[in-house]
Amino acid sequence: MNVVNNKWIGQRTIRPDGVDKVTGRAAFAADTAMPGMIWGKVLRSPHPHARIRSIDTSKAEALPGVKAVVTSRDVVDFPLDKSVMLGIQDMRWMCRNVMARDKALFPGHPVAAVAATTEAIAAKACELIEVDYEVLPFSIEIEDAIEPDAPILHEFNTFQGKPSNIVGTLEHKKGDIEDGFKQADVIIERSFTTRPVHQGYIEPHACLISVAADGKTTIWSSSQGQFMVRAMTAYLTGIPQSDIRAIPAEIGGGFGGKTIVYLEPLATLLAKKSGRPVKMVMTREEVMRATGPTSGSKSTVKIGAKKDGTIVAAQGTFYLQAGALPGSPIRGAAGCSFAPYDIANVLSVGYDVCSNRSKVAAYRAPGAPIGAYAVECVLDELAEALKMDPLEFRLKNAAKQGTKAAHGPVFPRIGYIETLEAAKNSAHYSAPLRRLQGRGVASGFWFNAGGESSAQVNITEDGNVVVTTGHPDIGGSRAGIANICAELLGIDYRRVSVIIGDTQTVGFSNLTGGSRVLFASAMVVTQATEKVINTLRERAAKIWEIDPEAVKWENGAAHPASPNAGQFEPLTLEDLADKAPMQGGPIGAGVQLNTQGAEGGFGTHICDVEVDIELGIARVIRYTAVQDVGRAVHPGYVEGQLQGGVAQGIGWALNEEYIYRSDGKVDNPGFLDYRMPVCSDLPMIDTILVEVPNPKHPQGVKGVGEVPLVPVMAAVANAIYRAVGKRFYALPMSPPKVLAGLEPPVQQAAE
Amino acid sequence: MAKLHVTTTVNGEPLEFLCEPYETMLDALRNQLALTGSKEGCASGDCGACSITLDDRLVCSCLMLAAEAEGHEIRTIEGMARGGRLHPLQEKFLEQAALQCGICTSGMLVASEALLRKNPNPSEEEVRFWLAGNLCRCTGYDKIVRAVLETAEEIREAAQ
Amino acid sequence: MTDIRYVAPQTLDEAVGAYAAAGSAARILAGGTDLLVQMRSGAVKPGLIVDIKKIRELTAVEELSGGGFRIGAAVPGAVLAEHPRFRQTWPGVLEAVNLIGSTQVQGRASAGGNLCNASPAGDSVPAMIAAGAVVTVQGPEGRRELKVEDVPAAPGRTNLKPGEILVSFTLPPRPPGSADAYLRMIPRTEMDIAVVGCGVSLTLKDGVCAHARVGLGAVAPTALLVEPAAQALIGSRLDDAALNAAANACRAACRPIDDKRGTIAYRTQIAGVLLKRTANIAAERAQGK
């Protein structure tokens, strides 16, 4: 028996890694050095599409100071005819993404890598590599890539019997869509475009890798999964996983963008060839040109409703840009967009389209914000056409326990309706607005993930606790884990040290992604801690010579469960740790699970904007994010997830975009012109945490990290419409576009 | 090619180092002086993760040559906690969960400390514009701005 | 970047000597906020870096007899902002200089560097043009003066002769009823390069505009002095008709490009909007509001 009094769960404790991070002590990917370390650099294709006829590295190799050069010949090949999946990534594409093989597919695509004694020499050596390119025609935008005569990136791929850049499709179907629209009194159909946007983590990709003469490899890098790094590096270099120790550095932001590797296989090959530790650090420009943004998109959404507000049919078609290699997040776009609603007839189709830009990587609820932007804007128009309040309209159609979603599952107890009601009842929703201000709302859904996790909970000899888990902590998850472990053990949370283990010291743990980390870690840590508590009770029972069932664990000590069990002084964690050597040895437990029961998450957002109609500038002046978070184990970091997601969404809505030059190169590969929100661009971001506990989780946890990006662009777009009476169907709603949309009649009307 | 000899003061301690003429202060701090608390997010002055003070004035160390440190005083995040005691801003950032990944945190703290030295009673707007050169992609800035405002208030109260 | 030298001379003569001797590969380092970015990107590979910040004349802010100001070319924006009286006399010049980059950049970036970088979008340039500022340059053949508007030649290029170093800006004395203002359009609230920048300096006598100068940035290969816009304001009470005429004169002066920061149509339209807003702010300041 373990008596829990909820002393720490729900508290804003100090995170275990906090002091390191406010003093500069925390070691991120680029912060370490090794004796004898040399520097690696990547030579990248200047062309968006080119056949590589030959690569001559001899001059580079002859340059004094150069220690190794690698090309695609050194990377393990995965033939095109056989898929080898690792999570959501196919190694066929990964091997071609880390290093171009027969063709360079985007400007920035690696074609060779060099290691030399200094960065300057490595850069000089890259200039000396001679690549013979046959330059090919290219396409960047979806509409160009799906033209019948478009240049084909992957000749082996066919769609409807012909070579095509459409490399994948997905369809979710429920009911009869034709029949559904026949029942509708009002139907609205609109088309939308979004631009590729980057995750925008501030820490560029970096790694430091050494390979011993016997092949034993140490990788120090920041990623959203040290096990992913190990597995991909093993696949691409041929080194067995047992020889690769991937140590997770502190990670300076990922948002999905660090769920794949770029540098690690190359640095490993360079280290192996040179016999020296190799450090590689991307420049910001390399990050922007060659690492994953999320897709640009073209969507068409059609929704029909009856006069009473009942949605009877919904159809969505979502084309997403995969970049150079297949794998755009059509599942998120097609699967999540209609999920908040109980709709009888749904057809949602996604198309994965390759074009000559960098391969997309996951970005916070991949695909879902793209779909939600289209759907939630159409819903706003429908509500208006039906003369209904947009939140009431959503309430009328909200998914709830028992609703079957078009993407498959039947929802258990969910908290979507609660988010709508909390939004409706918020002070924000009824606050007055001034001229040229407008208020928009939107909702969003994300699947959330469970999956494999491992944890080890050890009691130290002095009676404190070390918890080791296997997920890089990207936003405070260690604080949540400490709260849970301290809660279960009934001790001060400061006595729990939470460590992220490397691949050779903790069991396999899947990526930090899918909003899964606290959900899954809490499960394995809870089970491991409960095992430890059982051991502690057994030890006390042995000392007291009573039955373990007669011992209860409470407030950090073993107590007799009742007076009947006998009269004994409590044995604290320290007492039992002290006696452990004589009582059966060290106290600790490990648990490994494929966690299940991660239920989807829902959020509803309210956004106020003010528009300068002479300059076309829309500014967000007030924002409230409401979300069903299950249980906020550490409210500070839960709120932080909501606030951060909103900030990214505001950037996506208003200014962020990849801009291409006519030669196919990115024209804004830096923070200056990519224009992420800065501190003065944003208001305070209010949050309302709705807690409908997840019944399948010991603490009721639901994933919270991704949902908050999903509704934002639609909330902003709907707010701009309410401010100026003009709807915008393309992101970003940047000043030149907004001004162009506000022709003088619109400007006058708005005044 | 001769390296330059630089005599300077970093976090109150006099020290000397050798640098290339083109080397930035950020690279010298990180690669030669092992002060890796200052981060490189962009190397173009757009993210502020490398913020330091030069003679008490806030600058980006990526936009300064190491050679320019000659005869001047540099302070970095590593010098912010004194004698093992955290600065009130550091304490407040922890209490308020004003950091998530932590990569911008060094720069945010150095910049915030420079603000409060210059203006002990900033408005929210003043905090936001002062910190506009410090990008954070995790927090949406909300908790950072609150932490700075609350620290300022506490410092003012303590001074009374 | 291997054969590079760095010098930090104590006198202007030494600096000019070193700079002229090194020829076209030399670069002047003031705040370095453009130079270091250009070096990092590989756009500039200097053989010699001449750090001018140890030269007193280039780092001083002086008040001249008669009420003018002389600002050393390497004075950082943050230092100018701390001058006890400059802000009252030239609020528009100061706000323009202080819009160059972040707080961190302000600790280093100077109006001299902003002018010599010769970006059409430099924030301080239109304000300095509107202010009627004159620069002093010194080279191997001695000193000379140029109007600010005559310094930029093309994007990235100035009319300074080989070996010439920008020494200082001289701003004229202000008659009573004078004020200036600078506004720029950027998509965000900070950290962007101006899509359009507009500086207005004017003098009001009994509510009538007696003197005006208008500078426009980011709408042509160089920052512009827009005399027709000034003429439209002079003699008026800055009524709507005068402001509209001045705005149209600004739009007519625009020769912008389409690029990642804005379109031709947008820039042209905005130039007029900013003129009106900037002139109104300057007028309010001139009236002591």
Topology:
The complex is a heterotrimer of chains A (751), B (160) and C (289).
Chain A: E1 2-3, H1 18-23, E2 38-44, E3 50-56, H2 58-62, E4 66-70, E5 85-86, E6 89-90, H3 91-98, E7 103-104, E8 110-116, H4 119-128, E9 130-135, H5 142-145, E10 158-159, E11 162-163, E12 166-174, H6 177-182, E13 186-194, E14 206-211, E15 217-221, H7 226-237, E16 244-248, H8 264-274, E17 278-281, H9 284-290, E18 297-305, E19 311-323, H10 330-336, E20 345-354, H11 368-385, H12 390-397, H13 416-425, H14 427-430, E21 437-446, E22 451-459, E23 465-469, H15 477-489, E24 496-500, H16 517-544, E25 551-554, E26 557-560, E27 571-572, H17 573-579, E28 588-595, E29 601-612, E30 617-628, H18 635-654, H19 671-674, E31 685-690, H20 712-724, H21 735-741, H22 744-750
Parallel strand pairs in A: 1-25, 2-17, 15-16, 19-20, 23-24, 30-31
Antiparallel strand pairs in A: 2-8, 3-7, 3-9, 4-8, 5-6, 10-11, 12-20, 13-18, 14-15, 14-17, 18-19, 21-29, 22-23, 22-28, 25-26, 26-27, 29-30
Helix pairs in contact in A: 7-8, 10-11, 11-20, 12-13, 15-16, 18-20
Chain B: E1 4-10, E2 13-19, H1 25-32, E3 51-54, E4 57-60, E5 73-75, H2 88-95, H3 105-118, H4 124-130, H5 142-159
Parallel strand pairs in B: 1-5
Antiparallel strand pairs in B: 1-2, 3-4, 3-5
Helix pairs in contact in B: 2-5
Chain C: E1 5-7, H1 12-22, E2 26-29, H2 35-41, E3 48-51, E4 61-63, E5 69-72, H3 77-81, H4 86-89, H5 91-97, H6 103-106, H7 111-116, H8 124-131, E6 134-139, E7 142-147, E8 152-154, E9 157-158, E10 165-171, E11 178-185, E12 196-205, E13 208-217, E14 224-225, H9 227-233, H10 240-253, H11 264-286
Parallel strand pairs in C: 1-3, 2-3
Antiparallel strand pairs in C: 4-5, 5-10, 6-7, 6-10, 8-9, 11-12, 12-13, 13-14
